[in-house]
Amino acid sequence: MIYNKDSIFQDKSVSQRTRTDVIDLLFAPSSSVLLAHFYTVSIFGYWLYEQVANRSLFIWLATSAVIMISRFALSVFYQRYKNVKFSQRTWLVVWTILTVSCSLSYAYAAIILTPLDSPAAFFAVGLLVFGICGATTVSYAASIYAILCLILPISVITSTYFIFVLSDKTAMVAGTAIITFTGILLSLIRGVNKAFVKSIALNYQNQREIEKRKLVERQLYDISRRDSLTSLFNRRYFDEVLETELGRAYRGHTALSLVMLDVDYFKEYNDHYGHVAGDNCLIEVAQLIEQQANRKGDLVARYGGEEFAVILPGIDANGALAFAQRLQTYIEQKKLEHSATKLTTLKSVTISAGVTTVIPLMKHSPDKIIEQADTALYQAKKEGRNRVKAFASIGFDQDLA
Length: 401
Known about the structure:
The protein is built from twelve helices and six strands. By secondary structure, it is an alpha+beta fold. It has two domains: 7-213, no CATH class; 235-396, 2-Layer Sandwich (Alpha-Beta Plaits).
């Protein structure tokens, strides 16, 4: 799959999901970031312990602890309530305030608390800034915004103070080093960040392509089971379901009924009205059958031409006969015009139906069940059409027309 440059971000849903994922990543490393800041503050505090008044150092340590705990609590709160409480903008504003506060506290320690009267002090401050910048890059590579929030305050403040306030040679070297390091780091991380964000977007894009492909496959599968004219299930799927239902009926010793029906004198209908009208007639009849076969588990299929089939799981002989008779009457009462019919008393579309029911104590073949229903249908047509007949091993039941 080939993508044009940044084309993936033209899809608003992908772009939105990418932003959401980036924000999730900002809040994800809460415990590891807390430990990293705790380690940094502890090392820097230990180094300042012998050189700074205890009160000033205590205030800084307490402030840093409050900021770190607040950021950790915010991350936990976000994981629990990100979808039900506040907007992404609100979360980012609070996160930015705490992050910038953390950076300012480091800058305060580097400038105010550190005794900047020896090269060793500048070396320590430089290591602090470099360490924070490096750790930030690793932790927040997904967001340039996050990196800037933590790196810029401490880098800009310390380097500006060293170069323009202290102005001695050592301070200027330290300030220049911090600026150079920060610039190089940001220029390098920019490419990494783009690749990182693009990989997230590509992942979502791939997921969407997979979902689309699955949808197309489901649609193609559904199309393969459907008759193109009536949208009923087709013969192939009917055969599959009948075999499955026969197996289920055999295992549960339950009844299974099959109704085969066709439109009376449909050839005459086609000859008189034309094939387009004939197709429309089949569509209307299919809809009427579906309206009656509305139980969960019932299956209506176009068996071929003007012939339809209805599988009725769990329906005994009496129920199947009642259904077929109700369907025959229902279609007759719709009075779909059929002036070419050979039925003398009616000039409307009618159906003939054959019914068979089995309670399999031994396995039956689908072909045998279909043959029985077809035999009953043939008998109904032979006796004058517009009637229902049921298959029996020693003949047929009474006329239900």
